## 1
Amino acid sequence: MRTDRRPGPTTRARVVEWRGDSRTEHEDRLATEEPLELRLAWPGHPPQHFVVTMRTPGHDFELAAGLAHGEGLVVGSRPLVSVAYCTDTTLAPDQEFNVVTLMLTDPPPVTPAVRSTTMSGACGVCGRESLDAVAALGGRRLPDHPQLDRDVVATLPDRLREQQHIFSRTGGLHGAGLFSADGTAVVVREDIGRHNATDKVIGHQLLAGASAEGLVLAVSGRIGYEIVQKAVLAGVVAVVAVGAPSSLAVELARDFGLTVAGWVRGDRMVLHANPDRITG
C-alpha cells in the first residue's frame, strides 16, 4: 500500500501571534482534520456508504470498527472479515486514505441507518469537497468589516466563561456565545457538546428574527471544521477560543474570510486565518 500521500496527524500553517504588544509571524502546527467515509459490506452485498465523520488521520481502522460497534453493526467474537482503505482507482490522490470499507462476516443485526452529510456519499471524500460543500449550502465570502479591537477580542473567553452558569455548578458543559464587535454578549448557551451550544446561539437568532451577521462567536475548547462551517453559514465574522483550531477549520476560514483566533488567554492570541480584521 502506498503511504506517500497519507495525511499525518499534524499540518503546518503560517500564523500571526500576539503576546502583549509583540506581534510575530511564524510557522505553527495544527491538528489535522479530514473527513473519513465508512462503507459497509457483507457476503452478497456490495459496499455501501454509511457515514462520513471528521477525524484526525491515524488508527483509521480502529475508528471505523469502533464506530460500527457503537452503532450495533458489529457484534460477536467474529464480526469482521477485513477492514481496508477503498481501492477505487478513480480516487483522487487526496481521497485515497479517507475511505474505509468494513467487510462483515454476516449482514448486520440492525439495518444500517445511512447518515446524510453535507458531503458526497460517493467513494472518495476529501477536505476540498468539505469546503466546497459549504459554498453549496449558501456560504459566501465574508466582508472585511467590522474591524475588531484586539483588546476586546482578548476578553471574550472570560466574558463567555462568566455566563456559563451551569458549567460553574457542574464543570461538565461547553459554552458558545455571540458577541458584538464591542464585546457585548448577545446570547450565550451551554451544552454537553460545543457544536450543540453553537447551534443553540445561532438558532436563538433565527427564532428571534435576528441575524448573526457581523457578530463574533466565542466557544470553549478547540475550533473544529463544523464550528467554522456553522459560523460561515450564519455570517459570523470571527471565531474565538481558548483552544486551537484544526487544519480543516483554518482552511475553510481562509476560504470564506472568517477570522480565527485561537489560544486566546491572557495577553496571548494566535491568529490562524484572516488576521488583518483584528487591529490594535
Note: The first strand starts at residue 10 and ends at 19.
## 2
Amino acid sequence: MEKIIIKTPEQIEGIRKSCKLAGQTLEYIAPFVKEGASTGLLDQKIEAFIRENGAIPATMGYGGFPKSCCISPNEVVCHGIPSEKTILKNGDILNIDVTTILNGFYGDTSKMFTIGEVSPAALDLIEVTKHSLDLGIQQVKPGNQFGNIGFAISKYVKSNGYSVVYEFCGHGVGIQFHEEPQIDHSSRRNSGPYMKPGMTFTIEPMINQGKPGTVVDKSDKWTARTVDKKLSAQFEHTILVTENGFEVLTDISEEY
C-alpha cells in the first residue's frame, strides 16, 4: 500500500490556492443553476472560469471522462456526465463536483443545488447529508483514526433513516487527484491509519433515500445511479490536518 503523503508547507500553500479556486468555481456557477439550463451549459461555464483563472479542470480526460466537472441530478449518485440533453427542471436536486489543477496542485469540492420548489423529503436528505459531512470533518485532528470519520457519518445518517453509499469514498488529494488514504463514509470506530499534520484528503459522503447500492450506466461507464431510483445527495470538502485540528481548504464562505 502506498504511503500517505505528508505535504510540505510549500505544497500546502499550493493546494490551498487550488482549493480556494475550486470553492470559487461553485460560487461562480450558482446563479446559472436554474430551471431550463442544461448541465452541458453549466459545464462549459465551469471550464471557462477555471481556465480564465490559470487552472485546468482535473476531470477532463481523467480515465477517459469527457467533461470538466461531474453534475449528478436526482437519483445520480456521482460521476454524472454533463450534457446539452439534460435540462434542469422544477423540483430537481443536483450535485456539482469540481476539481481544479492550479500550478500542479489539486483542489476538490462539491455541493448540492436545488431547482425551484423542491419536496420537503429532498430538502431533508440534503440537510442530513450536509450535516453528516460536518460531523465527519469534526473528527479530523492529529492522532485520530480515519475510521472514526465514517463511523460518525454512518451513525448519524442511519439514525435519520438514510443509507450511506459504500462503493465510492473520499481520498487523499493535493499532489495527485487520488492519493492514499481511502476515506470510507461507513466504517468501524477506531479503525484505519492515524491522522498526522500535513495530510490532505476529501470527505465526500454520498447519502441515499433508499438502498445504499449503486449501478453504473452501461452506455457511458461513468454515471452511477441508485439501484432503486430514489434520490441521492452529496457534499465534499478538501481537508488539511493541522497541528491541533483541521482546516477546510475548500471553504471560501468561512463556514468552518
Note: The radius of gyration is 17 Å.
## 3
Amino acid sequence: MRVRHPELGPAPVALESTLLAHGVPRGAARPLADQLDAIVRTKGATPAVCAVLAGVPTVGLSPSQLAELLDANPVKTNTATLGLAIAAGRHAATTVSTTMELAAGAGVRTFATGGLGGVHRGYADRLDISADLAAFTRFPVAVVASGVKSILDVEATREALETLGVPVVGFRCDRFPAFYRRESEATVDERFDDVRTLASYVSMELDRTGRGVLICNPIPEREELDAGAWSLWLAEAERRASDAGATGRAVTPAVLGALHEASGGRTLEANLALVRANAALAGELAVAMSPITPG
C-alpha cells in the first residue's frame, strides 16, 4: 500500500484521527489536536496525524487537511474496511489498527493513543474482539496507550495479547492499566522506568520480530476515576446505549458518549488527560529511539 507522507520532521509520532473525529465531542477535536501537536513538538518529536483523504492514505496531515477531514464527518475504518475506503475515494478516520498500518507504511515506529480496543464483555456468547489486537502481529510500531478501554473485558484482552505474542511492557507500572483506572488484575511482561532503556528494547524488538509492542502508560494519578463512581457511570452508560439500540461497532462509541454525559464530563476530562500524557511519553520515546533506529 502506498502511503502519502509529506516530508516528516525528526522523530515522528503517529496520532490517530478516530480519536479526534469520533472519540471526543466535535468542539473538543481541534483544541485537542493543537494540544497533542504542541506536546509532541515540545519533546523534540514531530506529530503525524494519520487518515484517509479522498481515498489516499496519509500520514502527517496539515492543519487544513485535518480541518477538511473533521468537517467531512469521516467514516471510521479498521483493517478490514481500510481498503474499501481507499477504493471508494472516501475520507476516513483511522483507528488504532489502521493507524498502525499507515504508520508502518510510512516508516513511523512510534504511535500515541488513548486506549486499545479489545475483547468485549460477554464474548463467550457473542465473539467481539477489536482488530487492534491482531494489528500488533502485523505492523512494527510501538504503541503508547493507557492499556485497554475500561468498558471492555480487561483481563480477557490481556490474555488475548499474550496469546497473540504481543509484548506488553509498563512504563513505571507493574500492572496492566485500564484506561480510566491505573491498575487492573492483570500484569505486564516487564517494567521500564527509564525512557532510554525502553527505547533500546523497543528498537531491538521491532527489528527482531517485525511486530508491534504495547507500552502501557497509566492515566496520571490525579486524574484517575474513583472506582465506585466509575461503576455507577458505566452501568448508566450501558443502559443508555442499549436503549438507543447500539449494536456491533456502534457499541463502544455509544457507551463512551453516554459515559461523558452520565459523569458530567468527568470521563472526558480523564480521557483527554491520559491522551496528553501518552503523547508526551511517545514524543520522548521517538526522540530516544531516533539515534538507534536503523536507516
Note: The CA atoms of residues 118 and 130 lie 5 Å apart.
## 4
Amino acid sequence: MSMLEVKDLSIHFGGVKAVQNVTFNIDSGIVYSVIGPNGAGKTTLFNLITGVYKPTTGEIKLDGEAIHGKSPNQLAERGVARTFQNLQICMNMSAVENVMVGAHLRLDRNLVKAALRFPGLKKGDRELRDEAAQLMDFVGLSQYVETRADAMSYGALKRLEIARALAMKPRLIFLDEPAAGLNPKETIEVDHLVRKIADSGVTVVLVEHDMKMVMNLSDRILVLDYGKKLAEGTGEEIRKNPDVIAAYLGAHA
C-alpha cells in the first residue's frame, strides 16, 4: 500500500475546474515533485491534500484511511505538515520561538496550567526550546536561534519555515516552492536540505519551478497542465516526454 493515495481528485470554483480527475500514489520515504506551468493547479492540489480546500469529487487516503475533508489540524495530528509559497513567519518573534510554534499540537496547553505556570509546563517549554534549537541546527540556522525573524535574510526565513514545519514531527511534508526567490547559493542549500529531510525518513512532496533542483532531487515527478495530469514518472522519463517538453520544459530542456 502506498503512503498517500489520490484518486480522481477534482475541485471546481464556480465554472473554473482548477484540478480535474487527478490520480497518483506516493510511496513512503521518497521525494515526489509536482511541476507544471503557472496556473496548472499545483498549489491547489497541495491545498486539497493538506485540508485547506475540500474536494468537489474524488478521494485522498493516508495509510489507507480517507482524509479528504479533514482540517489542517487533524492532518497535522496524523503527521502531515506543509510550508507555503508566501512566508508564514511571525516577524516580531525570535527564530527559535517561530520553530516552537510549529510544535503547538504536541504541547499540553491546559489553561489552568498555563495560568499557574506549573513546573511541569516550564520543563516542557525548556525541552521544546532545546528541540527547536536542534531543528534550527538541522536546517543550517544555528547562528540565528535568538535573532528576531525580521532581522533575518529572506533565504534564512525560507529555511526557518521548513524548521517550523519539521517541529510538528511529520511523516509527510509538503514544500511549496521552497527555493522561490533565492539566489543560486541559497537554492543549493535548500536542495541539500530537502535531500537531508528525505534521508531522515520524512516523505517529501515538492512544488518547485527550479527544474535543475527538481531533476536532482526527485524520485518521481507528477506534471500538471490546466489542472489535469499530463504525465508521471522518473526524472528521465519526464525529461524525454514530448508532451511535457511542449507544455513546460521547453525544446532544449
Note: The longest strand covers residues 16-26.
